[in-house]
Amino acid sequence: VGRVVDLELDADDRDDAYRKVERMCAELLANPLIESVEIRIDDGSA
Amino acid sequence: VVVFPGSNDDHDAAWALRAVGAEPVMVWHRDDSLPSDVGAVVIPGGFSYGDYLRTGAIASVAPVMASVRVFAEAGGPVLGICNGFQILCEARMLPGALRPNRQLEFVCRDAVVRVENAETLFTRRCAYGQELVIPVKHGEGAWFVDEGTFVQLAARGQIVLRYAEDVNGALGNVAGVVNQAGNVLGVMPHPEHAVDPLLGSPDGGLLLAALVDAAGAHRTHAAVA
Question: What was the ipTM of the complex prediction?
C-alpha cells in the first residue's frame, strides 16, 4: 500500500458513498495510470 | 512563471529567462487569469503544496491552471520543469506520469540528455542528436506511460529528450515529452540551472532561448488575431 486516505463524508447509503469516493479517486486522489485503488466503507454501524 | 506554495525554482527560472532576453512576470497559483500580454508560461520546479498526495496532483487543479490550459489550447507555449512536468502530466496536458526513481533515492547531478526532436518550438536552437548537459534533481522522475502510447509518442516525435544513460528508471530513458500539438513541453532536467558556463553548463539556455523565440512569435500572432 502506497497511501491510505481516510475520508469522512455524508452520503445517502453505502452505494452513494462508494460512488462519491470512486469519483474522487478518478478525479484527484489516484492516478489510474500508475495507481490502483481499493475503497472500504465504514458506515459507523458496527 | 507560475508560483505555487512550495515552488522553489521560480526565481531561478525568472533569472534564467531574463538572462536569455525575456521579461518574466510571476503569476500566483490563486490567480484566475494570466497577464494579457504573456507570450509563454513556465511552470517551475519545487514541491507544490508539499506534493503530499502525489507529485503535482494538487497543483494540477489549482485556479491558475485553468488559465494555463486555455493559454495552451490557444497555441501558447508552455514549459514545465521538473515539478512543472509532473503538474502538466497530472493535468493531463502531457501524456504519462512521473513515478519514484527506480533507485528510490533522490538524484541530484548533471545529466547528459540527447535531443531526439530538434523541430519543436523548444528545441529549434538545438541539432538532432545534440547532447546537452543539464542538471537533474528529483525523487520522482521516472516517466512512465503504457507501451502502446509510448510507441505512438515516439513515432510522432513527441519524445523530445532522452538521457544518454539510465538516470532514474524512466521508460526509454525519457527526459522530456511534448504534447501532440507541439506547444507544451515537460522536462525533468533543469534548463534554468544551466544558462551560464560559470555554473557548469550553458546548454539549458538553448531550450529557454527557443522558448523566448516562441513567446515572441505567439505574442505577435495573438496581437494580429
Answer: 0.88
